[in-house]
C-alpha cells in the first residue's frame, strides 16, 4: 500500500474523537483544574486571583499577622497525560501555591525544608528588610533539610511578584520551585478587574524517556509550561463576554516569551512595579515577558475561543528533535518500503510538513519513548490543534457566572462567522502572484503586468497601479 | 642341503597370515569417533551438504587418504616380507660387495641362519609396525574428519556472516540512497552526502570481503573433500547450530584423550616393536647390526604420521656392541617422544577446553545480553524517530551497528564450533551434548522482513473496536456546526 493510501485509510479507521475522548477522560482538555476562586471581592476588597491548574495558599491571622506556611519538597508532577516527573515544589505542587496579600499586610511565612539539600526563599520584587531577602550565604544561613525558618515583613507595595529559592537556584528552579506572590493595592483599583489570572512561565528539560528534569540544560528545553503544565493540559482561561480580564505573567524560565492573545488588543498595565498609572498603559497584542520579569495585561473579553500563547513557535511545541535532517520536500517513496525490510516500524514523515506527524501520533500509529509527549497534540472541533507547550485558550462566553472557571466547551460560532470552503481547485480564482515557483513549472508563473490589468480583473492591489 | 631347508622355511613362511586392509577393523576404530564409512559408491555432493556427508566425501576422495591406504599396503608388504625368508639371490646380492669369492655358501648359510633365528621376532616387529600403521591410518582419517568438520563449520559461519553483512550493507546503502533524496531536496550538504557515501562504500568493501571469505572457505572444504575447485553444485547450510552442553572437566577429558588418542596408540605400537627389537639385538648381539628405527613426520597439511622400521645387517666384522647401544638409545628416544606426545596432548586438551568455554561464554554474552540490548536500543531509537527526536540516518546507523554485532555473534559461534571440533579431536572422541542441532539453530531470520509488511496495526496493541464511525479529521468539511456539541 502506498503511504498516502495508508494515511487515508488510517484516518478513516481512527476517528478524530479518539484523543479527545482520552483527554476528556483524563480530565485535561475539558475540565479545568485547580481550586475554584470565589467570584466576589474579599473582605479586604480585592478580587482574588485565579491560578490556572494551581491554587492559592490559605493563611491564618495571628496577632494581626497573615501566617503562611510553605513546605519545600519533592513531588510527582504531571505535565500532561503521558508525561510525569519527579519535580520539586511547594506544598505538593509546582508551581507552589499562589500567595495573596494586600498592601500594608504584615506577613509571616514559615518555610519548612523537606528537600534533600538546603534551600532558602527569595521574595522576588518585594521590598523588605535585607535579612528577609532569602539569599543564602548573603542575607541568611541555609535552611537545612528538616529545618523550618520564618520570614516576616510588611508589604508596603502592590503588584505581581514571585517567590523562588536563592540557594542552589539553578537546580531548584529547574526542578520547579517557584510561585506567584500577589499584593493587591490597599486602596482598591480605579479600573476593577473581573477575572484575575496568575501564570508562571517556565521551561523544563525532561528528556524523553526520563522521569526527572535535568537541571544542567541551558538552551535545549523540552517542555514550555504555563503553571508547570503544557498544552493540552493547561486550563483554559474563561471569562464572561465584556468582563475585564487581567493576566499576570511571571517568567522564571531561561527564555523570553513574547506572549500573544488573539482577538484583542490588550493593554499592558503593570508589573512587579505595581499597576502602572493609566497614562503608561499601552496597547499590544504581543508582550515579551523577559526572564525574571512580570507583566500584567488586561482586556475586555470578546466572545469566542481565543488562542493565548508564546509566539516563539518552538515554545508551542512539546518535546521535539533539533538538528535532525530536514525531511521537508524529501520524497522517500520506494526507499521507505525497503527500509521497512530492516526496520518494520519505520514510516517516512515530514515530506509535506510536520502536520501529518500529529495524525500518526494522535492515532497511535507510532509509539514514542516512554513518558513523553508528541510535539503537537490536542483536538478541537475542527480537527487536530497541533500545538504543545505554552499554548492555551481564552474562552469567553456570554453567560458565565462570576467565579465559574470551569471549561465551557468549544465555542459555537454564529452562522456565517466561520471561514468556509469555496473551492477545492488549486487554480481557483487566478490570484495575483509574483516571484518564482520552486521546482517544476517554475517558468509558468505569470508575471503581473505593470498596467495593472491582471487575469481576473484588478482587485485593487496598490502595486498594480501605474503612476 | 641348505636349499631344501630354505625352501621348507620359505613354505612355512607362506603359511603365516598376510595382513590385509581389513575394513571391518578400520570401521570399528572409526565408529568410536563418530565416523562411518559407507560401502556404497558415493556420488559427488549436490545441494545442501550436511556435515556428515562432507566428512564422508573427504574420507573417500581426499588424496591424503589414498596415500595413507597405500602406505598401509606397504607396511602389509613388510609383514609379508618379514614372515618370509629373503630370497637367496637377494642375500647374495647384499653379500657381494664384501665377497672375496668362494664364500657364497657360508654367507648364504649365515643369512639363512640369521633369518631363521630372527624370523618370529621379525614377524612380531613387522606386525607391530603394521598395527602402528593401521592406527596411523585411522588417526589420519580422524584427523581428516576433524579438519573437514572444522572447514565445514567455517564455511557455514562464513555464509551466515556474509548474509548478515549483506543486510548491514543494505542499511548503509539505504542511508546513502536516502541521503541522495535529501540532497536532491536541498536539505543536506555535499559533505553530509559524502559521509553517507563513505559509510556505504566501507560497508560494501566489507561485504566483498565477507563474500571472498565465504568462497575461500567453500574452496578449502572442496579441497578437503577431494573435489578441488568444485563448489557450484553444493552449498552448506545457512545457519549455525546453537552450542551444546558443556564437556566434562579437563581432568576427565585428559583421561579420555590418553585412552583414546590413536597417534599415542600408534606410537605405543611402534615402541612395542622397538622394545622387541632391542631384546632381539641383545639376544643375538653376535649376529650383527639390528636397528629398530622410528620415524615421525608432520606433513604440511597437518597429517601426522608415525612409522617404524627395522634394518638388519650381517655380523661379519663386529659383535654389534654399537648396535646394542644404538638400539637402546633409539628406544629411550622413542620413550621420550612418547612423553613429549603425552605432554602435548594434555596441554592441547586444556587449551582447547578453555577455548571452547571462552567462545561459548562470549557467544552467550552476545546472544543473551548484547543483542537483546541492541534490540531494546533499536526499539528506543525507532520510538525516538517516530516522535522526530532523531532522524532516519541515526536509525540506519544504529541498525548497521546492531547488524555488525549480529555478525560478530555469528563469528563467535563459528569459533565455538571450530573450538569444539578441535577439542573433540584432542580428546579423540565425541563430546557430550547430544547431536548437533539438538539445541536449535542460531536464527537470523527476524533480521529481515518481507517488503510490504505493515506492523503498526498489530504491534501497538491499540484496539480498534470502539473507534466508532469513520471520521475524516484530515479532509473533513467542518464548515457546518453540526459537530460542535459533541466535543464535551
Ligand atoms: Cu516562549
From TrEMBL, chain A:
Organism superkingdom? Bacteria
- Tell me where in this chain the Plastocyanin-like domain is found: 78-187, 223-322
Q: Which GO terms describe its molecular function?
A: copper ion binding; oxidoreductase activity
Q: Where is the composition biased (Basic and acidic residues)?
A: 27-38
Instruction: Respond yes or no to whether keyword Signal is given for this record.
Output: yes
InterPro entries named among the record's database cross-references: Cu-oxidase-like_N, Cu-oxidase_C, Cu-oxidase_fam, Cupredoxin
Q: Where is this region: Disordered?
A: 27-46, 423-467
Q: Which PANTHER family match?
A: MULTI-COPPER OXIDASE
- Protein's name in the database: Multicopper oxidase, type 3
